[in-house]
Amino acid sequence: MGKILIISPEKCTDCRTCVMACSFNKTKSFNPQNAAVSVYNYEEVALSVPIMCMQCEDPSCMKVCTVNAISKNEDGTVIVDNKKCIGCKLCISACQFGNMSFNSKNKAMVKCDLCNGDPMCAKLCPSGAIQFKEPTPSELNKKKIIADKFRELFEEVDK
Predict the structure, then answer these.
(1) What is the secondary structure of 48-68 as a DSSP string?
(2) What confidence tens digit (pLDDT) does each residue in 62-99 have?
(3) Cα 18–127–27 angle (5° rounding)?
(4) What is the rounded CA–CA span in Å between residue 116 and residue 123?
(5) Which of 104, 114, 140, 149 is most deeply packed, by most CB within 10 A?
(6) What is the pTM of this model?
(7) Mean model confidence pLDDT for the chain
(8) How far is CA 43 from CA 3, 14, 47, 128, in A?
(9) Residue 31 to residues 28, 37, 80, 103, 130, Cα–Cα distance (Å)
């Protein structure tokens, strides 16, 4: 397995540097609508959580894409070919984690592609809440636990 994004919500200061770095790296503009990362703030527990694509092993977004605009590259990163994308947004509905969006101004899907192996969100995160590294077994387990918790939250919202 290659490097993955490791999120440590307890380190997040809600500065949103990750959002601005992602937006600028993708579009050369500081616009959160162009970012493939967002930060959810849970005020009741004083916790901010950077959210981005989980790079699923078996991505639901890829399964539902009717024009095969979503694929995995050789290193396993889930990518969107916006030239093929027709903007139907089925992938947004299919993502259980809510980690895809559509920028209507640019007519493009917005999803983390790990910045071609050099993710700016991790590189510029001042608190170390986002790291891009080879995962340890405990980090993989932590990632799975967090993903399961978010899946439960999204299933509750859908009820």
Answers:
(1) EEEE-----SS-HHHHH-TT-
(2) 999 999 999 999 888 999 999 999 999 999 999 887 88
(3) 15
(4) 13
(5) 114
(6) 0.82
(7) 89
(8) 31, 11, 6, 21
(9) 9, 11, 20, 11, 20
